[in-house]
Amino acid sequence: MMLKKQYATLLPLLFIAGCVSQQSIQKPVQQPNKPQPQGNTQVTQTQTIKVKPAPVVVEQKTVVTPKPSYRSFADWKSDFSMRAISAGNNPADVQRLLGSAYLNEQAISLDSGQPEFSKMPWDYADSAASSARIANGKRKLSEQRSYLSRLESQYGVNAEIITAIWGMESSYGAVTGSSYLPSSLSSLAYDGRRQEFAETQLLSLLQLLQRGDIYWSPLEGSWAGGMGETQFIPATWVKHGVDGDGDGHRNPWSTADALASAANYLSNSGWVRGLQPFYEVTLPASFDYSVVNSKQPAYRWAELGVDTIDDVSLDANTQMELWLPAGKDGPALLLSPNFDVIKVYNNSSNYALGVSLLSKAIAGQSGLRKSWPRYERPLSTSQVTRLQQRLTSAGYDTKGADGIIGTNTRKAFQRWQGDNGQTPDGFISQSSASSLTTW
Fold first, then answer.
1. Which pLDDT score is estimated for 438?
2. Domain that holds residue 353
3. What is the pTM assigned to this prediction?
4. Would you say residue 39 lies in a domain?
């Protein structure tokens, strides 16, 4: 059934039929059997895959907030060592962790640097769902079909979504990073944007080493601290990592553990079984664009004339957000709560869109129906900063001028558009923002 305006008065009844109820996402209290990996162990026909496990919660040792700056990397190492040891960590382990850590200038540079131009959504989507990544994803899904199907049954997360995240994070395990993690995290704790965050990751890395889930060598990952085939940061792995292959360890470099943990993480973050991350829609000619980027129940969008391109059933009261990633001339998407869940991996709408499109392609489904307005061009960082300053000065507060187009900037620009004769779709480009970015 489509979200059609003429059915608006019947939607509270029609949408509920055949849909996922809100009660279906309540957390179970029992601990399920662990999924077994493909290849080493077989699951017999009599075994039952239970609902997802309760999250593993491990008590964290904490340290005091670090000083804002240090005279040298050695000074930070000395200070952090004392604080970590005084918080109850084993002195020998602390010294071993930091003894081999060197200053990684590249990590600091990558952490502080910003791209000169922000990517348009179609550029990101093209890269995420490239032909090579789709082909490899289909092959990996076929190879791991049995295991991924069991994870889907257990955690409720589509096998294609898990596969797509695997592909986005490490090219299906081919690229897990070559930065020495103690050095990267220590460098970011010494001179990064989020010193306390980096120190927390170091302590969590130490915890994983102490409980034997990971080994002291080679300890290589991303410059930002991502580990293994689904690129968990240490603190998140401590909370959400699970033992997928049944060997008694939760190792992010194990394919079975990495895939099971990704499913567990999304499930713990509120994944709703059977709900797609987004649904492409059409808008009526008289549509009020001021409601773009707002969240409303599905039945309300139907009353406003929003119509799904494909015939789908939605719970009438499911909160959905209308997003126009490329403005009024591009695709229109209704985002489900699962779209936000994907963003726990990377708090970027483009990332969640990339994962969603890749998963659809891996499943053999078509992508977006409406074409992108590829003639539009992005703003440079300096232009975004100027836009933010001028919007704020004109009474449309962007909550800062950092040169990054985020939610606050888009909402401020959308309000400005509505007051200045533009369609308030919130899309920022060279053409739409020209009067605010030129001198």
1. 86
2. 5-20+274-362
3. 0.82
4. no
